Amino acid sequence: MKKSVTVKARNYRRFMFAGLFLMLTIGCSKNSGEKINRVGILIGAEFLMPAVDGFKEKMNENDYVEGKNIEYDIKNTNYEPEAEKAILKKWVAEKYDLIVTSPTEVTIAAKDATWGSKIPVVFTFAFTEGNDLVDSIRNPGGNLTGVRYSGADLAVKSLEILLEISPDSKRIWLPYLEEYPSVPEQLSELRKAAALLNVRLIEFPAAHSYEIAAELKARNKLSDTGIDAIMHLADPFAVSHDVISAVSEFVTEHRLAYHGTGGKCVFILSNDPVEVGRQAAFLADKVLKGIPVETIPVVSADPVLTINYGVAKQLGLTVPESLLARADHIAH
């Protein structure tokens, strides 16, 4: 009887050990098959951070779950080239599976940092004109693809809308950050459009935001300021608090139409960062599933038009009904 009990106990322990081994084996097999993709997201401007929300939201819809099969390393700089280079160097050394960038200058730095590696880059809000980021929109080549910012097209369209709101304007003041990489292409197209529209661009290249305020202050002392309307290019000045404040004060005093990103701008024509992030996730999903990044065509974000109707009324400007009908958003 005692021997029978001992045999049963021994068999029971063998059964338990076998079961435990099976559980561990199954668990290890499952874990080993669940690759965790490491994705570095580098955003070079605070106002573009909502793109991260859109990106993660769409990735989650595509079954990428944080902690299960994807990890994000999100960095936000503020036009700090050296900091951006250091971040990218670290990600390349650690062989991240994917790098997501925004805007143009950060993407250029990412292309340089990943040169010679197999790390793919998906960019957002980057100009593809006037640089060598990609070979072409349809066949980007190299290790990059992404969501381009059609800044030159938007600049021309912004000028046309500005003249719809202020049809008598002939002198358009255009401050911009000199030597900014995306400026030349925008200027080239805008100059052509201005000639066709019979208006004169009063270009004001500057290196610092305080130069904008100083120039407007000087013009305020003249009997004729020489400005009928103001617009921005897509550059850091367009989102600078100091620049927006100085321009807003000037247009309020002189009741002028202003195209910008805030303050007393009458309208905003740009891309929705959240939607751009979702578009980038669509491309990232393809990359992580093994499709060669160089074969994935670059896509363009749709423009979003916001009319600040309340500001227009304050400035004594009339927004045509046809333009209101085309607006995506109307702020009262």
Would you mind describing this structure in some detail?
The chain is of the alpha/beta class and about 325 residues long. It contains eleven helices and 13 strands. The chain has helices at about 1-35, 50-60, 80-95, 105-115, 150-165, 185-195, 210-220, 240-255, 275-290, 310-315, 320-325; strands at about 35-45, 70-75, 100, 120-125, 145-150, 170-175, 200-205, 230, 255-260, 265-270, 300, 305-310, 330. Strands 2-1-3-4-5-11 form a six-stranded parallel sheet, with helices on both faces. Strands 7-6-8-9 form a four-stranded parallel sheet, with helices on both faces. The termini are far apart. The model is unreliable at about 1-10 and about 15-30 (pLDDT under 50).
Number of strands: 13
Query: Sheet bearing the most strands, described?
Result: 6 strands, parallel
Task: Briefly note the structural class of the backbone.
Answer: alpha/beta
Strand content: 15-25%
| Low-confidence parts | 1-9, 15-32
How many helices? The count is 11
The outline comes out as elongated
Global Rg: 27 Å
TL;DR of this structure?
The protein is of the alpha/beta class.
Give the topology, please.
Elements (H helix, E strand, L loop, with lengths): L1 H32 L3 E7 L6 H12 L8 E7 L4 H13 L4 E5 L1 H10 L7 E6 L17 E5 L2 H15 L5 E7 L5 H15 L2 E7 L2 H12 L8 E3 L9 H14 L2 E3 L7 E5 L1 H16 L10 E2 L2 E6 H6 L6 H6 L2 E3 L1
Parallel strand pairs: 1-2, 1-3, 3-4, 4-5, 5-11, 6-7, 6-8, 8-9, 12-13
Antiparallel strand pairs: 10-12
Helix pairs in contact: 2-9, 3-4, 5-6, 7-8
